[in-house]
Amino acid sequence: MVNWKTLRPLLFAALATAALGAIAAFGFVKSGIYDVAASKPHTKFTEWLTHETMIHSVRSHAKGIEAPPTVSAAQVLSGFCIYQTHCVACHGAAAVARQQWVNGVEPQPPYLVDAAHIWKPRELFWIVKNGIKMTGMPSWRDSLSDREIWDVVAWLKASSQLPPQTYVRWRSSGRCRSLSGLPSPALSPIPRP
Q: Tens digits of per-residue pLDDT, 35-92?
């Protein structure tokens, strides 16, 4: 049987603690004490909290997505060209640095050289399609088709298996001209991701 005389003070203390916590949180938000400047890194706790939340959110939301069963060399090339157009400035590539202005972004966008080892294809697809809040990673949902997003994922998978200088060679040889209707050098074989 529940002893209400003992339980009542505990419930009151719990409610009072919750109310004080809510008031303190509200006061903290309204005070402006927390420095939101991108010129200063996040605290270790904030970095851990947001990173862990992001990882678990992506994995949870990407569960129902199925990756295409096969990937062609044309998809990898298309993904390379899309990456070159939209992604390399922030994320760099093997043997290619990010643009200088990215140093002012907090948190800094990760290099994606090992992204295919960290994330499953469906998770990469979800990230590219939906973006990541409070990181500067935009959603490409309205700019790229699902097929184009899968092509980017195909490039990320394949690039992790290619020699590091591949990106630089492909970029300097004008491989993306074939997608724009201009002549380009012949495709060399690409290992299957």
A: 888 888 888 998 999 999 999 999 999 999 999 999 999 999 999 999 999 999 999 9
Reported as a single tens digit per residue, the pLDDT across 176-193 is 976 655 444 444 444 444
Q: How far apart are CA 142 and CA 161, in angstroms?
A: 30
* CA atoms of 122 and 62, how far apart (whole Å): 6
C-alpha distance from residue 64 to each of 58, 59, 158 (Å): 11, 10, 23
Task: Establish whether the linkage from the previous residue to 107 is cis, with ω within 30° of 0.
Answer: yes
Cβ–Cβ under 8 Å, residues 136 and 105: yes
**Contact between 170 and 78 (Cβ < 8 Å):** no
Residues 94 and 120 sit within 8 Å (Cβ to Cβ): no
| Closest to 123 in 3D by CA, of 51, 50, 63, 53 | 63
Exposed/middle/buried for 143, CB within 10 Å: 0-12, 13-18, 19+?
exposed
Q: What are phi and psi of 187, to 5 degrees?
A: -70, 135
CATH class of the domain whose range is 71-180: mainly alpha
**Cβ–Cβ under 8 Å, residues 68 and 150:** yes
